[in-house]
Amino acid sequence: MLLRCNSNDTGFILKTCAMASVLLSSQVSAIELNDSTEIHGFFSQSYINSKNNNYFGESQNGSFDFREAGINIFHEATPTLNFAAQLTSRKAGKTNDGRPRLDYALLDYSFYDKAGLRSGIRLGRTKTPYGFYNLIRDIPNARSGVSVPSSIYFEQLRNSLIATDGGNFYSNLNRDWGSLSFELYSGQTGTDTEMEYYVLQQDLPGKFDDATMRGARILYENLGGSLRLGLTYAHPEFDYIPGTLDPFGAGHVASDMWLYSFQYNQEKWSLTAEYLTADNEVTDFGVLPDRFSNTEAFYIQTDFRISQDVTTYLRYEEQTLDTKDPDGTKFYQPLFGAAHIAFGKNRVVGARWDISENWMLRGEIHNTHGTLWLPKSDNPSLADRKEHWQMLVLQLVYNF
Amino acid sequence: MNRQRSQCLKTGLFTGIMMFLCLSVGSSARAESIQIIAHPDQSTVTLSSQNLWAIYGMKTRHWADGTLIKVFVLPTKHPLHRRFSINALKTYPYQLDRVWQRLTYSGTGRAPTVVPSEQAMIEAVTSTPGAIGYINSTTDKGACHVVKVQ
């Protein structure tokens, strides 16, 4: 019995290895159903080992609890009308359970394309234009690290940032001095439990209702794209629906976010920096006094392409929840008993190895001070959260 | 105190960026020539380097006559693709990959079709209406139209 079980196991392992080697050796760039329809997809599996706090699962003991998968279709119905949709799944400790969700599903009508100017509208669920990386924040081979920088891209508020259900107007202007891309959008978006921790420092009986989101982004790029500059405005609004025996009232949260983006690219290196300033209001929660605060965040990352297949990078990032209380001692320490929930400062060293056209391996070491973007669902006890924490992340990615 | 440090750091970073910019020298493109080829139907087409960049960035999607542009490329690591990126587009293969990945996985567009060799490029461009591609200047272009880039 034992022998049979073992041989079955061996068979399974052999089959898996055979499948992996087929995938590794064959190069798949897309599945083209016909001239106007193609399918792409990706998969990632991470291993995280952290010290002092958990990040996506019980990572202090080593965790494989972070994986992503996605598949998308793009169809050119007519020369001016496209349809696109993507289904994704994300398992990230207790913050995402891996259930498939519709990442985007849109109709794109390009009503003008002449003399270097192209304009159109997208209707449906569209990715929210925010900074350089939000559109592809969940695409492991396209983003700048094992995840997008937490300081600017708010992992804890991801459901409200990833996509908007509504309309999006876009326009691209191409001239000899470069190109300008403009997008304007408005619609509904989602919320998540981490949002409750972010605003009120606890998982509450009530919940935040679907949020509204509107904003705009303008990007400048010179010919060849060595210089890229961006300005994003975003205005999310959320309503809190109190649960039974809820200490809080039907509160309201809104923010005016301004994000400045900069990138300079050369053959062997790139420099990317983004800076965010956001004016927030948290009002009508009853027991909690109305609060008006300014959140500030930035990161700077340098990438060094040491060969065609290997890139190393360094990143420094910060987020300050309230610029009037940057070290958390004035407001957060007295009210919640911990100052470190008010800020995050992080140093990242990483490397990326493009093994083949479809396979990529990435490794990162994080050294973080502060728990502002620590996933609270994975560290529910405030008393157990440590101010200083470190982690090692390895991520294997397949994409086609 | 902390705030002061953070401000100080930001000023430092900004200065760093500026110094990087001032010191960096644009890499010079080698002068081996490339020819841009298009489907025979596009025989009157001429392009500026800005048009070419907008086409390969998938920003311009139509020819002046309204035909949908079908963009063809060689694999990222193909030496001719690298030369095309640097000489004709004033960019690098990794930047083109980034642009195309953004389009492919955000529902906002489509990446070019990858062909394995120059010969496959000529065949694809000859047989696909609206097609654009590139080959070595010494390679026989077959029935394709050679696009003048000004």
Structure description:
- The complex is a heterodimer of chains A (400) and B (150).
- A 16-stranded antiparallel beta barrel of chain A has the order 2-3-4-6-7-8-9-11-12-13-14-15-16-17-18-19.
- Chain A has 400 residues and is mainly beta.
- Residues 1-10 of chain A have low confidence and may be disordered.
- Helix content of chain A is 11%, strand content 54%.
- Chain A is globular and about 60 Å long.
- With 150 residues, chain B is α/β, with parallel strands linked by helices.
- Chain B has one domain (34-149): Periplasmic binding protein-like II (D-Maltodextrin-Binding Protein, domain 2, 3-Layer(aba) Sandwich), CATH 3.40.190.10.
- Chain B contains five helices and six strands; from the N terminus they run αββαβααβαββ.
- Chain B has helices at residues 2-23, 49-56, 79-88, 93-104, 118-127, and strands spanning 34-38, 46-47, 70-73, 113-114, 131-136, 145-149.
- Chain B has a six-stranded mixed β-sheet, with helices on both faces.
- The radius of gyration of chain B is 19 Å and the shape is globular.
- In chain B, 33% of the residues are buried.
- Residues 22-31 of chain B have low confidence and may be disordered.
- Chains A and B meet through strand 2, strand 3, strand 4, strand 6 and strand 7 of A and helix 1, helix 2, helix 4 and strand 4 of B.
Annotate the secondary structure layout.
The complex is a heterodimer of chains A (400) and B (150).
Chain A: H1 2-25, E1 31-34, E2 37-51, E3 63-78, E4 81-92, E5 96-97, E6 101-114, E7 117-127, H2 150-153, H3 158-161, E8 163-175, E9 178-189, H4 193-200, E10 207-208, E11 211-221, E12 227-241, E13 252-265, E14 269-283, E15 291-305, E16 310-320, H5 332-336, E17 343-354, E18 359-369, E19 388-399
Antiparallel strand pairs in A: 1-2, 2-3, 2-19, 3-4, 4-5, 4-6, 6-7, 7-8, 8-9, 9-11, 10-12, 11-12, 12-13, 13-14, 14-15, 15-16, 16-17, 17-18, 18-19
Chain B: H1 2-23, E1 34-38, E2 46-47, H2 49-56, E3 70-73, H3 79-88, H4 93-104, E4 113-114, H5 118-127, E5 131-136, E6 145-149
Parallel strand pairs in B: 2-6, 3-4, 3-5
Antiparallel strand pairs in B: 1-5, 1-6
